[in-house]
Amino acid sequence: MKFKTLTGIASTLALCAGMASADSTVRFWYHFDNADNPMDALVAAFEEANPDITVEAENIPWNSYYDQLYTAVIGGNAPDAAMVKMFAQPRLVEMGALAPIDDWLADWDGADGLQDNLIELTRGPDGQQYYLPVQYVVLYLYYRPDMFEELGLSVPTTCDEFRETAKALTRDTDGDGQTDVYGFGFRGAKGGHDHWATFTLGAEGVSLTEGLTSEAGVAGTQFVADLFQQDGVFPPSAPNDGFQEIIGAFKAGKTAMTIHHIGSANGMVEALGDNVSAAPVPECGGGHWTAFGDESTAVLSSAEDPEAAWKWITFLSTEGNNTMFNEATGQLPVVKADSESWTLHPQRFVQATVDSLPFAEMLPNSSATADFVNTAWPTNMQRVLTGDIEPAEMNAKIEELFAE
Amino acid sequence: MTHVSETPKHRASLGRQVLPYAMLTPAVLVTLAIVFFPMLQTAWMSLHEYVLFRPNDFTWVGLDNFKAALNDEVFWISLKHTIIWMCTTIPAQLLLGLVTALLLNQEFPWRPVARALIIIPWALPSVVIALMWVWIYDSNYGIANEFLLRMGLIQQAIPWLADPDTALASIILTLTWQGFPFFAVMILAGLQSIPQSYYEAASIDGASAWRQFWHITLPGISGVMMTAVLLRMIWVANSFDVIFVMTGGGPGYATHTLPLYAFIKARTNLDFGYGSAIAVLFTLLLMVVVVFYLKRTGKAAS
């Protein structure tokens, strides 16, 4: 009897073990600023459709997202799939951390449903495809129509106009001798390279990889320095201001313009109602430059079950699910059908995004880009703003970084 | 009979000889594994070119990383800040801690509550402290500016953390606030070990309060103070969490210290070879303090 019970238990255990091995688990890393994110709902929907796959989705804080991802890859504890941005791709490819998805992509019928050109834009440095786009944004200029109207100003379309407008908007509104409103909320901390790039990289023949130390290139950085040091149109805290600070100051009416993307549109409308609008960034040095803010998902080469990971990431870039995903991040869907039925953002912000698309650019597909974003740009920009170094020196350092 | 009585004695003495080692072994093994092994690894990495996103490229470069560090402007800026940081934070903490301890040693109602409350800055996590002070210093909404403006001490809000002239000083103030309870508690313990009879004898001899402090209190707590200063020097030198959260080393290099620079190089730029070299150089500098501390504790033990 005892023996029978034992064998019974043993066979049940063996059966369970057998079932467990047929199942696979996908560990997925992502970053959402939004506290009430719907990842749980997406995971539940996916698991219902794919009962043999379990998804463990983990929200990693944005500030250390890539530090953690790189170290996890090196430490052999990388997730199976992760949300990734273009600037990180060259480095991840160099590390051999990504699994190519070309073959799966060829067989996936959802590929045709994606916005045109996105697959092309996100191709890897070696010509293989690793990234599957999941959302996108384009940076544009936020401004306060009420303040513009009050002062009889129009939205600046060139850098010269921008400077004059910003100066006019910087004022002491209650007569206590303190500046209450600043013309532009400049992001001097990590992530602010897009602001600087708008004023610098629009010029003919200037990019991060060439012409940065030319007269036109240095003039761009000088322009930013002058706006802060001479014109005083940025808040004094600009050198240290990050995302929270620039958005907070704009919502609080401390700044009259700033540059960000549609992701913050709803929060701004909530705070300011109709007193916030958007337009493409001004043209500087004879050309336009704004950042194409990408976000993709990728399967890691160390994935235990790459097929399952691929299934999960395609699920996120499929009609309906892509809407749910973007409702959480406040960005724009990459699936055509989802874009057409998109109602999450007021039309004026979608329009500013669409108008900015023709000149939106991405950072170079180079392994130096990560250092540029994380340390070289913020440190040198802060040194220029605080008068520690000259603009020419900053541009020379960045050029040197990309030349290595 | 003799034989029987000797064996347990022999056993006991053997046991007494082996037991300490046996009991220390786990702690020593753990320390070796989590402190000494990474230390050796760091020293080994510092002699190589090792950039984490090129995991297969681990090239021996000898002392090149050290040479590069000594020629690196940022290394010297960070070293200067580290020295300023240590030479101001610790005396400030000590002084504030001493005053607090002397106050807490007086008889007054609610003394136990005051003693418990004073420990709060020390008990809070560094990240919480850093975020709290970032808000205090905020140039738009911060209470520091609001207070000074209302008092008429400043005319314009000062961006405390965004101005390179005030950023380091602002962080030093934060650290002083965080660390003084440690001194207060240590010195308070020292104060309580001074027999009351010394003071009674001194006052019979007509010694003033200052004389009593100088000749009885200070010698009585000097040992505790010395140990606390040395310990705190090592902790403060190594700590970068508050700076990292408050400014990330910025604006520019205005609040870079050596441990922070090593961390940024290794963790953000993934240049572990160079980051390790900076860490090793800093360890060597700190070794002077450590040797002094070890000598002191050795003396105290003997």
Automatic annotation (TrEMBL), chain A:
Q: What is its main location?
A: periplasm
| Domain of life where this protein originates | Bacteria
> ATP-binding as a keyword?
no
Keyword terms? Signal, Sugar transport, Transport
The cross-references to Gene3D superfamilies, in alphabetical order and at most eight, read: Periplasmic binding protein-like II (3.40.190.10)
State the Pfam families in the record: SBP_bac_1
SUPFAM superfamilies listed in its UniProt record:
Periplasmic binding protein-like II
Keyword Transport attached:
yes
Q: Where does it live in the cell?
A: Periplasm
Task: Provide one Gene Ontology cellular component.
Answer: periplasmic space
Which stretch is the leader sequence?
Answer: 1-22
Spell out the family assignment given in the record's similarity comment. Answer: Belongs to the bacterial solute-binding protein 1 family.
Q: What is this protein called?
A: ABC sugar transporter, periplasmic binding protein
